[in-house]
Design goal:
mainly alpha, 3% strand, 58% helix, elongated, Multidrug-efflux Transporter Regulator, Chain: A, Domain 2, two-stranded antiparallel ribbon
């Protein structure tokens, strides 16, 4: 088994303001940032059905509505959806994401619980990365074996 050093946690940066390497700038400036569900679907790669489901299960903290009842998403909603996408990539269960969203709604008194949840998720993610690195090493050895076998046979 390969021992992989701990992956350092990234430095905190303001979410979604184009300050980090993977944080795109918002398409519209704050104050003029009203997006339809179709626009958010296009921007995030999520379907409108998924966005409605996120709202229904409590994963979207609060989505404003127009005077006609249509959802109007903001830059803050885009930031939240980008964060949820990262949580999904970690393999965090939806129930944990919903619990995290509820803690965010409750406020600062849940900081310890939120931190603990994210720390557990980070540990799980680091373990998965280590497993994937081991898997890559196995694949690399197999690829090298077949490369060498083909070269030795003269059929290259």
């Amino acid at each position: 088994m390969t021992v992989i050093p701990s992956i350092p946690a990234p430095a905190a940066a303001p979410a979604g303001r184009g300050t980090g390497p993977s944080e795109p700038r918002h398409p519209r400036p704050d104050g003029r940032d009203r997006y339809t569900i179709g626009e958010v679907a296009s921007l995030t790669g999520l379907t409108a059905h998924t966005l409605r489901w996120y709202e229904r299960i409590g994963l979207m903290p609060h989505v404003d509505r127009s005077h006609t009842g249509q959802r109007r998403f903001s830059n803050r909603d885009l930031d939240w959806l980008a964060f949820v996408a990262k949580l999904r990539l970690t393999g965090m269960p939806v129930a944990d994401m919903v619990a995290y969203a509820e803690m965010v709604r409750i406020g600062e008194e849940t900081f310890d619980a939120r931190r603990a949840l994210l720390e557990r998720t980070r540990e799980d993610t680091a373990a998965r990365i280590a497993e994937l690195r081991d898997t890559l090493a196995v694949l690399d050895r197999k690829i090298a074996y077949y490369h060498d076998a083909v070269a030795a046979s003269g059929k290259d």
